[in-house]
């Protein structure tokens, strides 16, 4: 005879009946899933705190994952917008070099037009042991080996600048810098961008646009250096 488990106030079933009930539920889980009231009772809080609200746990995890994905998407979108803006500024700067008809015009553009286009406070082109132009604004000579001292074995650098280095490279104190090597037909050089904003150039930043601009500067300076 079946035990009357549904009767209000009935005593709990014995171990044998509990085992049979468990087997029946394991074989037919939809019995519980299809009963909303029973599912709510099983998932709800209990007085002793031993029952976990699985629905709430899953919901919280999904919300947390959704927030994480949203933050990642917003970061990627912001990074893409920043890269597009930087690419546009670099293209404007490179194109302005094409308008220069001689070394004096190039020096003026490097000192005035390019910093504005790139959003930096200073731009210099240093050539080791060579003076491309006397009384220049941006095309300046520097001591041989300065590139190796500043860059070591690297081709570029982004990050903070100390006061002594800032004076040597820019002629004034700035907070952050971006440096790229130049090869002026065997004459080592450096393209240097400087900013008073310490967060403008940080370690680990991408340098693709910086190196693109460096190659453009090389191609404009070399023909005049030959002369």
What do these coordinates show?
The chain is of the alpha+beta class and 227 residues long. It has 2 domains: 15-52, no CATH class; 91-226, 2-Layer Sandwich (Beta-Lactamase), CATH 3.30.450.40. 52% of the residues lie in helices and 15% in strands. The chain is built from 8 helices and 5 strands. The protein has a 5-stranded mixed β-sheet, sandwiched between helices. β4 and β5 (187-195) form a beta hairpin. α4 (54-98) runs antiparallel to α5 (103-118) and α4 (54-98) packs parallel to α8. The protein is rod-shaped, with a radius of gyration of 35 Å.
Key features of this structure:
2 domains; alpha+beta; Beta-Lactamase; rod-shaped; disordered N terminus
What is the CATH architecture assignment of the largest domain? 2-Layer Sandwich
The CATH H-level superfamily of the largest domain is: GAF domain
Strand order of the largest sheet: 2-1-5-4-3
The domain tally reads 2
Strand content: 5-15%
Q: How far is the first residue's CA from the last residue's CA? A: 112 Å
For the biggest sheet, the summary is: 5 strands, mixed
Which sequence of SSEs, written as H and E, runs from N to C?
Answer: HHHHHEEHEHEEH
The average pLDDT value, as a whole number, equals 81
**Highest CATH level, the class of the largest domain:** Alpha Beta
Summing up helix and strand content along with how strands pair, one would put the structural category as: alpha+beta
Q: Compute the gyration radius: what is it?
A: 35 Å
Could you give the topology of this structure?
Layout: H1 15-27, H2 30-33, H3 36-43, H4 54-98, H5 103-118, E1 122-128, E2 139-142, H6 146-151, E3 156-160, H7 163-170, E4 176-184, E5 187-195, H8 208-226
